[in-house]
Amino acid sequence: MRYGKFYGVGVGPGDPGLVTLKAVKCLQNADVIFSAVSRQGARSVSGNVVDSIPDIEAECHELVFSMSKDWNERLACVKENARLIADELERGKNCAFTTIGDPMTYSTCGYLVKFLELMLDDLRAEFIPGVNSWSALAAASGRVLVEDCERFTVQPNYIDPDPETFKKALADGDTLVFLKTYRSRNKILDLLAEEVPDAKVTYGANIGLPEQFISKDPDKIRDRKDEYLSMLIVNTGKGCLPEKPGSEQGPANAGASPTEVSGCQVDFNDKR
Ligand SMILES: C[S@@+](CC[C@H](N)C(=O)[O-])C[C@H]1O[C@@H](n2cnc3c(N)ncnc32)[C@H](O)[C@@H]1O
Fold first, then answer.
1. How far apart are CA 137 and CA 165, in angstroms?
2. Atom 14 in ligand 1: which residue has the minimum CA distance?
3. Which stretch of 37-46, 117-126, 200-209, 222-231 has the lowest confidence by average pLDDT?
4. 141 ligand 1 Cβ < 6 A
5. Which among 49, 100, 133, 170 is placed 20 to 30 Å from 13, CA to CA?
6. Can you list the domains of the chain with their CATH numbers?
7. Distance between CA atoms of 143 and 155, rounded to whole angstroms?
8. What does each C-alpha distance from 192 to 51, 129, 226, 232, 243 come to in angstroms?
9. Is the CB of 229 under 6 A from ligand 1?
10. DSSP 136
């Protein structure tokens, strides 16, 4: 019997409105859908998105993935889960694995596929991109990520940023997204205040979910508890055009007009 096909499906940050039509169609046609969850009893964010899609006939399963600091333990867990998916593929079932955001970006999906390739000859796999969490935060907060020649970097896992590494990261990008910063967030804010005091910071937690929280105020951000689904966007560049005077996003000199940026003169008081 021919093996079923594996689909790695990005379902976006958690808002069912941010799932692509292609992902919906794929999930409606799948025989089995697997969604990741970080611990037994917790609800899977991607599983919740699947529940919101109409006409799903697939068998749905949640797979627990270890978040242990022990890398071997994590990989052993991925391998066990890959075995469960491989069993269904061997039965000829088309299997979808859903993941938050995009399946090709910091996702368990990548590890799973490597094990599936080892377990099955001629694995057939297809991937459906999803809206990244930082794109969702940028849109929800109205914060432009980058313009023109600005550089954009994504920094994962800043558990304990040492000042030198942090300075290097700042030197490499005009806009930086810090993922998985729930334990290091306030240290990042401290270092940032020292290095680039006029940087603009946007914090987003649980983007796209009912408990979504967004703030551009460092003091309010500092007061938040640790939240796994959270990130910081730091804009150190000046952008191509000045901000509207008095806007929350405005630079320190907001209100000065006309303002020269990148050689262009813009007068925000001129409404023509
Ligand atoms: C393993 S990475 C997953 C990235 C995901 N594949 C993507 O494309 O966005 C997990 C980290 O992504 C960020 N993240 C993912 N979804 C999020 C959401 N809905 N709200 C805030 N942060 C989120 C957090 O920084 C979290 O620690």
1. 25
2. 229
3. 37-46
4. no
5. 170
6. 6-131 (3.40.1010.10), 134-258 (3.30.950.10)
7. 18
8. 40, 32, 19, 12, 21
9. yes
10. H
C-alpha of residue 208 to centroid of ligand 1, in Å: 11
**Minimal-distance CA residue to ligand 1 atom 5:** 101
Cβ of 94 less than 6 Å from ligand 1:
no
Mutate to test the pocket of ligand 1, among 18, 155, 231, 233 (most ligand atoms within 8 A of CB): 231
pLDDT tens, residue by residue, 178-188: 999 888 999 99
Closest CA to 116 of 107, 125, 105: 125
pLDDT in tens, 228-256: 899 999 999 877 667 777 665 543 333 32
- pLDDT per residue as tens digits for the range 131-173: 999 999 999 999 999 999 999 999 987 777 889 988 999 998 9
